[in-house]
Amino acid sequence: MARHSGGRGWYGKVLGAALGMTLLAAGASVWSAQAGALGGSSPKATASAKPGSDAVKPVDVTIVHASDKGDHGVNITIDDGPDPTWTPQVLDVLREYGVKATFCMVGTQAQAHPDLVKKVVAAGHRLCDHSVSHDTTMDKKSEAYQSKEILDAERMITEASGGVRPMYYRAPGGAFTPYSRKLAASRGMRPLGWNVDTKDFERPGADAIVATVQRELPSGPTLLFHDAGGDRSQTVEALRRVLPQLKEQGYSYGFPVR
Question: Which residues are known to be catalytic?
C-alpha cells in the first residue's frame, strides 16, 4: 500500500485482536501454485515457521516492477488483506476473468483468516509478505524491528497458508531499506514495488480508479489495489471493468519476475 495519512487506525485494532489469538495450526497441504517448501528457521524471527530439510533460495535484492509476461504484461497486486468481506469478492472477479494476482498480506490479517489465505493459494495466486502490522514508518525503525516485522509476517502467512511461503516482500508504504531488502531476499522474497498507485484506498470512485490505471499504465506494469482497510466496493467494481479492458488492449496478466 502507498503511504496514506490517517488510514491506519484499523490496523491497530486488528493487531490488538490478532495478537491475542492462539496461533492457528498450519494445514498439511502445499499447493503447486507457489514455489518452495518450508525451510529452516528464520534468523531473528521470534519463531520459525516450521523446520524442514529444504533450504530457502535467496533471490535478487533489487525492487522488482517487471512482469514475467514481458513488455505487454501486467501484474495485479492486492494489498493489506485478507479481509472476510472483500477478499472473496476480489477472488470472484479474478476468477471470472481468468487473472492471477499477487496478494500482499499483513501478518495479523493472515493469522486471523487462514481460510482465505488457503483460498488465495488454491486459486493459483501468489503470496507476498506485507509485514506484521503495516507500519509505514518501518524505514525509520531499527534493524531488529524491521527483522521482526518481516520474519514474523513470513511465519504467520506461511502457517496460515498451510505451508506455502510468500514469494515477495512489499514494504508498507514503500518503506524499504537496504537492510529490509537484503533480509527479505535472503528468505526468498523478492522486494516488490509498484508503478501504478490506483488510489483506490482513498475511495475516489470506480471511474477515477479505472482512469488512473489507463493513464499511468505506460509508467510500468505493476498495479496496486487493496482488498482491506475499509469499504473496497469501488476496488471490486474497478477491477471488474479494468481486467477485460486491458485484455482487449492486448495486455497479458502475469506475476512480478523473481
Answer: 79, 226
